[in-house]
């Protein structure tokens, strides 16, 4: 009789163990939809087709604030670097940067306004997102001198003579200057050049920016002594 009860208990424990094991394995197979970056997304990048994709992760691996619908964030702006494969969270994106022009610059850069009418801004052809070099012209010691002040700076915004943002497609006849992402160590030299002479923004080839690495704006070049 005792052996029979032991057999029943053993069978019951085996069934319970199997059920628990099955439930555990089934829980491991649970997946939740999550939006991840399809490629590296730098700060101040507007999310477009091909920038993000939908993947499925275990619910315990999903970060707080992770987004679930790739279509819903098209047109949003990246405010913090998102590397390929990383989850896209609401804290790293923003609907608009209009009121937050310095978002995403980090500790190494500053948003700096450089006065430049259309004659000093490549004839008004400069647009937000472009890369420009700055050329300074001074007349110190009675002789004019021009020199390359900075290279590969990112254009954040265009501003008119009243300090208002120039929207895309708007007339640039009253262009007041460009708001640039300037490395911290270049803030004083740029300010001095603006105060003592003329500063011109020279457009760079965007393809050159994508395929070539010399990048003063990102601080890859050595700081001048």
Write up what this structure looks like.
The strands form 3 sheets. The chain has a 5-stranded antiparallel beta sheet, covered by helices on one side. A two-stranded antiparallel sheet has the order 1-2. The chain has a two-stranded antiparallel ribbon with strand order 3-4. A hairpin with a 6-residue loop joins strand 6 and strand 7 (145-160). The radius of gyration is 28 Å and the shape is rod-shaped. It has 2 domains: 32-94, Alpha-Beta Complex (Type Iii Antifreeze Protein Isoform Hplc 12), CATH 3.90.1210.10; 109-211. The chain is an alpha+beta fold and 225 residues long. The protein contains 3 helices and 9 strands. The protein has helices at 2-28, 187-196, 206-211; strands at residues 32-37, 52-57, 77-78, 93-94, 109-115, 131-138, 145-160, 175-183, 198-203.
Relevant terms:
225 residues, alpha+beta, Type Iii Antifreeze Protein Isoform Hplc 12, 5-stranded antiparallel beta sheet, 3 helices, 28% strand
